[in-house]
Amino acid sequence: MQCALNILLIVLFFGCLLIGRFARSAPSARRAEGILLLCKAALWGVAGPLLRFPAFGTTCFIWGLILIALLCCGAFSLWKSRKKPANLD
Fold first, then answer.
1. Could you tell me if 70 and 40 are in contact, meaning their C-beta atoms sit under 8 angstroms apart?
2. Which letter, b or e, does each residue of 71-81 get, where b requires 16 or more Cβ atoms within 10 Å of its Cβ?
3. What are phi and psi of 33, to 5 degrees?
4. pLDDT (0 to 100) of residue 89
5. Global confidence as pTM
6. Which residue from 16, 38, 72, 87 lies 20 to 30 Å from 65 (Cα-Cα)?
7. Which residues make Cβ contacts (< 8 Å) with residue 12, sequence separation at least 6?
């Protein structure tokens, strides 16, 4: 579990670093961040059963919590990227 978490964090760090480097605007950066998080959630969801995380009690809870957090954060980032700024005229 610890190795999988380390790999997840390393990929997320470098993904955010590259997104920040190449993004041209804040909405495009948020959109790319949301897509990255949803892709990581999909990979985390597939890796869990393959590495038999749900077979253990506490590990299953932590695995599920991380999966839900990745899905929610990815959906929120995509929603924020589509939200239009308010007119302050």
1. yes
2. bebbeebbeeb
3. -65, -40
4. 47
5. 0.78
6. 16
7. 36, 37, 40
